[in-house]
Each structure stands twice: as C-alpha cells, then as structure tokens.
Write a structure and sequence with these properties.
D-Maltodextrin-Binding Protein, domain 2, 3 domains, elongated, about 280 residues, single chain
C-alpha cells in the first residue's frame, strides 16, 4: 500500500485548493488544513507536510503577489503546477430560494468575480470572509437560514447545501493557476523539464531588463509570466519573477548561464514539467 502524502493547503475541505490537491496527487493523500498561506509553508519547512498546493495567479484578478514573496523568502521550490477552471456557485441550506437569502459570505476574490450577478439581487448584502468552503461548512454546521455562500460544487455536495445558481462568475473563462511546492525541488529529471520559474534582480540602469529579455528571446525561451516586486532594502530597485517555457533543455541552460552573469542576483524558484490540463 502506498504511503499517503501529506498535503498542506490554505482553506477547508471542498475548497479549490482541496480540489487541486486531489486532482494532482490522487485521493491517497492526507490534507493538512491551514488558515493562511504562511502556515502552509511553515508546515512544509518543519517537515509536517510533504507538499503545499498554493494559488499563485488568477486569469481575472492577476497575480497573488504575497505568495511570490513567500516562496522566495522561505526558499521552497516549485515542482509542478495545475490550472483549475473556477466555477463559482451560489448556495445555502436546502428548502430555501434566492429571495430568502439576505447575506452572502465568501472570499473577497470570489465576491469580486460574481459582483455582476448580485447586482440583480440588491436585497442581498455581500460580506467578505477568509475562505469559500469554510462559509459553506459554517452554514451547514450552524443551520444558518437566510445566509448564502459562494463556493465550489464539491463544497455544496460535501456540506449538503442547495445550489441556487451555478457558474455565476461574470467572466466564464476563469482559471486559477496553482503551484505545487516542496523543500528541495529535486523530483524531476532535467530531461523532463520544460518550464522554469526564475527570480532576478538587475542593476538600476537603462536597458538592463531589455537585455535580459533579449537573451530569453535569442535562446528561444517563451516568456509566459513576468511580475516585479520592489526590493524592500533598496528603494527604486526591483526583483523580477518570470516563468519561461522551452522546447530544448540546452537553450534553457544557455539562457540560465547568461542571466546569472548579467543579474546582480539570480535564483531558480522551480524547474518542472508543464502539463496541459
């Protein structure tokens, strides 16, 4: 019998992090439920978790910037990723209708993505909370009539709630990218790598970023993401977080060598296989 993997996630059972954990690792896992992303990383560093599943980017709302800093500052490694199509569902206790609901609780991002739907129901007050699935659980445990939640279909099934309206997000093509983290990153052979997450800091001079981007282009790397964060210790200086994909490992290795020479600081956050989901 295979040993269960300990997977730390932010959120409750039925959350989107839970869904990704099961789809990526299979059902033979032990979930470690954490209130915050910081706690998931702490569990990993302490050896209490084997992996962390962490949201990093949403196609509507953009990057989850604090999570880039968490990965970088704690020196954990990205060993995979998963793109999940997000479907937000309006739910509550069974036996009710939409007009019975006075308040809806969910994560601020979920509320933002469903704002247009609720414009049609001005009697419903939207209230921000920490987690989508946690609100579904709270409604079920406390038998809360008149209260709704926005969460996954899986959460509705898990907590025996009725779905009043499905897929209520304004933009239907709504995908969140999750990264899979562990402590060392040494799980994938170099031959199977076709994507990398990199961080570099450049000297504050004209053309420095353009020169790096030219190296990537010349080495046939495809830049799929670039995110800048200020270097706290040095006002006016920025760290750049980039994702690149490539067809030939030799091209990536050449680019990596050149960038490490050109940058004042260079770090590999992860090298992994990009799968089409």
């Amino acid at each position: 019998m295979k040993t269960k993997k300990n997977i730390a996630i932010q959120g409750k059972r039925g959350s989107f992090h839970h869904i990704v954990a099961e789809r990526y690792f299979g059902e033979n896992l032990s979930l470690i439920l954490c209130d915050t992303f910081d706690k998931t990383v702490t569990k990993l560093i302490k050896g209490e978790a084997d992996y962390v599943v962490m949201a990093i980017e949403n196609s509507i709302a953009g990057s989850i910037i604090p999570n880039y800093a968490l990965i970088d500052q704690n020196n954990v490694k990205i060993i995979g990723e998963y793109g999940l199509s997000i479907s937000h569902n309006f739910m509550g206790l069974k036996g009710q209708q939409i007009n019975d609901i006075k308040e809806v609780y969910s994560h601020p991002m979920a509320l933002l993505q469903c704002k247009s739907f609720f414009n049609n129901y001005p009697h419903i007050r939207l209230v921000e909370s920490e987690d989508t699935a946690e609100e579904a659980q709270r409604i079920f445990k406390n038998n809360m009539k008149g209260i709704g939640a926005i969460a996954s279909k899986e959460a509705a099934e898990m907590y025996n709630l009725s779905i009043f309206a499905s897929s209520i997000q304004t933009i239907k093509n709504n995908v969140t990218r999750f990264v899979i983290l562990n402590n060392d990153g040494n799980l994938i052979s170099k031959e199977n790598i076709n994507k990398a997450a990199l961080k570099f800091i450049l000297d504050h001079q004209r053309g420095s970023l353009a020169a790096i981007l030219n190296v990537m282009s010349d080495c046939q790397l495809n830049l799929t993401k670039i995110q800048s964060l200020p270097v706290i210790e040095t006002p006016g200086k920025y760290a750049f977080f980039v994702d690149v994909t490539f067809d030939e490992l030799v091209h990536y290795l050449k680019a990596k060598k050149l960038i490490s020479i050109m940058a004042s600081e260079f770090k590999i956050l992860g090298e992994f296989t990009q799968h089409q989901k």
